[in-house]
Structures are given as C-alpha cells and as structure tokens.
Amino acid sequence: MICGNCRNGEQCNHVNGSCPNGCDKGAIGVKCDIACHHGTYGYNCEDKCSINCRIPGRCDRVTGRCKGECKVGWKGQTCDTKCNGGKFGENCENDCGHCLHKEQCHYIDGTCSNGCNDGYQGIQCKNICSNNTYGSNCSLSCGNCLYVYGEQCHHVTGQCPRGCVSGFQGDFCVEENDLFLSSSEARCQLAAPLYSFISLFCVSVLIIVCLVIRVLRNHLPKCQHKQENEKTGNLSSSKISNIMYTGDICAYDEVGEVTKNPDYDELQ
Question: Per the UniProt record, which residue ranges are transmembrane (predicted)?
Fold first, then answer.
C-alpha cells in the first residue's frame, strides 16, 4: 500500500502505514490520507481559512489561499492583512487621499479619521480647497488675487499665482499698495477742482440761456403791438412803411410815396 501524506515526506510505518511525526499540510488521519475539511488547512488541518476570504470558509487546504480573492480592504495570500501603504479598497488598489500627517486612511472606505492635510477637504481628503479658500480645513480666505483663467490662490499656501489686483501687493495680496493709493488720491484731488469748475460753468450757461429766453418772450408782444399801431396810423398818409421783424428788432423800410391819380377826366 502507498503511504499517506506524512510530514515532510517521511516514510510511514511499514506495518500499519501511520505517520510517526504527523501529517503534511492539507491532510489528517492516522495514515494522513484524509484531506482537510472545508474551512481548514495546513498541518493536521489545524488552521482555519480566513474570515476575510471573499467566499467565507473556502481556501486552499494546503496553503490557505482564499478562493475568490479577499474581501474589500484585505490582502495577502490568506487575506489576513489589512490594506496599508497608502492603499485601500478592492484588492487594496485604491490610493488614499491627503490624510493629516500622511496617516493611513481607512482600509475599506478610504476615509481619513483625523482630518486632512492643509489644502484638502472631503471625507477622503482628495478634494482641494475651493471657493477662494486654502489652508487647514480650507478655513482661510484667499487674498486679492488676480484671476485670469478662473484659478484661485494656491490651495495649500494661499499664494496668488498671477499676482494681485490693483491696489494690493505681497505674496498673499492682502497688503495695500501705498504707492497706488497715493497716486489715486492725488488724481482725485486734482480732479475735484476741475469737476467743480465744469459744474459752475454749466450752471452759468443754463442761467444765461434762461434769461435770454425770458427777455425774448417779454419783448415779442411789445414789438407786435407797435407794428399794429404803425399800420393803423399810416393808412391816411402818403407813405406806407413796410414793417419787417427780425429777431427782437422792429425795422421800417420806406417804400415810397403813393400818389392818387384823379379818377375823372378834365372837362373840355
């Protein structure tokens, strides 16, 4: 008869076939001729398959390797090791985010239990600060940065990548530019008298125009009345004046003497 799976390939007892030092991995029994039951493996089937096997209780009877790989968050041949080294999730293939002090994220869902490094937010610390914020927990506000393409200040340091808007200076664009403010104030001081002069000039012109209009309105009826009197008074005279009105001046042009011819013939 053939010996069973004695440990380390030893020869079984030549009489009864028993293994003097026990069985090799994956076998049990006096003669080591019985395979390990499901859920067990190793020498004398003393080890149990990992509970972290994707298919519970199913592993190789010799090596203990899980059949169907490991559950999420576990790795190794026997699925007894949590994801580490900045990895998590299915087969430990996902990268952790920017957890505080580079701590390992949760081996299953990748969350950062103690928060994020500066400049990052979210439960996995994978989202950079937004809405003009930066720093620890994105709690700091960006300065007066010059935004050309919609970018904001650096999410970690808060520095402005394209400089500052007019009137501010410094890496964080929070310092007022005294030179710019002084020149602006000077321009305002110079502009104030000019604006005052223009305003006074416009008011003066408006007043003059109103006065001229008022004078013309008062003078026009007098001129028309005078014209009517002149026409009435001169009908009986030998001269007829042609009355002309130009602007606000009444003028009279003598057109000559009108002579009446007798309307009868001299008697012979």
Answer: 194-216
Q: Are 144 and 164 a contacting pair, CB within 8 Å?
A: yes
Residue 82 has pLDDT above 90, yes or no: yes
CA distance 196 to 201: 9
How do residues 178-229 score in pLDDT, each as one tens digit?
765 544 454 555 456 666 778 888 888 888 988 888 777 777 665 555 555 5
In this structure, the answer to whether residues 101 and 148 fall within a common structural domain is no
150: left (phi over 0), alpha (psi -120 to 50) or beta: left
Decide if 124 is inside a domain: yes
Do the beta carbons of residue 170 and residue 160 sit within 8 Å? Answer: no
Range of the domain at 175: 131-193
Q: Are residues 139 and 123 in the same domain?
A: no
Shared domain for 135 and 186, answered yes or no, is yes
Higher confidence at residue 4 or residue 191?
A: 4
Counting the structural domains of the chain, the total is 2
